[in-house]
């Protein structure tokens, strides 16, 4: 059971511990700021006017500042790719934390949504209190112009109020469009609405510049609730009636004898005496300190990525594979990539703004500069892209020669960027599971092993590929056969264990033939029996740490994740890594 606990802690447990830590950190920050505004003397008069609405609004604002600062860091892809390099981050555990960047980004986004609701609710109460508790004694402290002013004017006729309303609408669009259902059904909606984040940040910087909430600056000269003798004597001075008629403003009421004395400001049974009127000042926008650094970092990275990808690539060949899969091979000067990484493709003729990530299936090496991607033709973008690349889209295969390159549209490549699959070569034993087109990250790894495997730590690779139709295996059947033959020639047939699973039996006879004889014996009908598979791998690799990598449907991912956390009697430890289609 001790091994099971370590496996749980390395996989599923780390997520639960992080969520607990993140929740505790945000709650602590909220409580710390709440107490500051509830007990701080500089906010005494403002607190008397607004009550707990002040404390809740400022406490939630501090949490929002913190999360708006961090939510941008996980989407700095160049920074993550830089840190993921083995020379920058030597620890494998630390590099695995970088693989959780998407989950961290989502966590920050959900936190922003939750505390935004709390922040908006508190400010609605504040607007009402500003109107009802208008103070004629401290005019500069009021956000309202007079008692009983319509609170809606504070929301729609002031810079902080209007920007806040627009930010709520923008955040609502971004959150609703980020749901799984919308991302799967219409990715364009998610992409376009998510890019409204720049509008959100610009509005946020304007929102905090209004200076609605003020604090007292002269606590030494005027402790809150103190006794002002000059003002009191003037109010109790007896003025002749002749002067009252000439100067009615100097007519005052008697000084109340039962004036309450605030307890915190009584020292030695005497009230503290102040020498000046209270002075109030707006806070410097703290939000600028929080978001300016990450926002500038993101903008600099975007500029760097734009400059790096500004030159179009040279498309050397386009191949149409079975089952609506398109292979594009390209060349670009000074392009370097590691197996398992991905790039972002942008074709202006398809869409001026839209771009999509694709995993590299072939990386450039010292001997060849060509790199390539395989993309599944699903959706409008990939359909238009295919029609532009292929002269005759009804042909099964078409390789266009170099002299016809003028027919290709301009294609820009941004990247490469890191992914969890880079770690597959850093384990002594790796289990790679692919579902359908999810084989693409492992294709670049297989191509790399074909060029040479001795320079890597990997000594045994279990490759499991599950497809619905037999034609899908033809995408990389030649690659698998060449790697199999190469390892047999080098007397290392046990280096790679290939298992192909066909979930549907229609047309199974099509792959049988001399060309793919090495794969025919490894083709199985049905779905893998995952529990038996894990037990067999654990038995053959006692007391070793095995990297588990999955790119495929969530159903397979959940099963592998659960089995990776399970204990076994062989002392084998499984570390789970995942790439999702969405």
TrEMBL record:
It is an enzyme of class 1 (oxidoreductase). The keyword Transmembrane helix applies. GO terms for biological process: defense response; superoxide anion generation. It is a multi-pass membrane protein. It catalyses: NADPH + O2 + H(+) = H2O2 + NADP(+); NADPH + 2 O2 = 2 superoxide + NADP(+) + H(+). One of its GO terms (cellular component) is perinuclear region of cytoplasm. Its main location: other. GO terms for molecular function: NAD(P)H oxidase H2O2-forming activity; superoxide-generating NAD(P)H oxidase activity. Residues 308-423 form the FAD-binding FR-type domain. The chain crosses the membrane at residues 20-39, 59-83, 103-125, 154-177, 189-208. Pfam families: FAD_binding_8, Ferric_reduct, NAD_binding_6. It comes from the Eukaryota. Its EC number is 1.6.3.1. Gene3D superfamilies: Nucleotide-binding domain of ferredoxin-NADP reductase (FNR) module. PROSITE patterns: FAD_FR (PS51384). SUPFAM superfamilies: Ferredoxin reductase-like, C-terminal NADP-linked domain (SSF52343), Riboflavin synthase domain-like (SSF63380). InterPro entries: Cyt_b245_heavy_chain, FAD-bd_8, FAD-bd_FR_type, Fe3_Rdtase_TM_dom, Fe_red_NAD-bd_6, FNR_nucleotide-bd, RBOH/FRE, Riboflavin_synthase-like_b-brl. NADPH oxidase that catalyzes predominantly the reduction of oxygen to H2O2. Can also catalyze to a smaller extent, the reduction of oxygen to superoxide. May function as an oxygen sensor regulating the KCNK3/TASK-1 potassium channel and HIF1A activity. May regulate insulin signaling cascade. May play a role in apoptosis, bone resorption and lipolysaccharide-mediated activation of NFKB. May produce superoxide in the nucleus and play a role in regulating gene expression upon cell stimulation. This is NADPH oxidase 4. It comes from Eulacestoma nigropectus (wattled ploughbill).
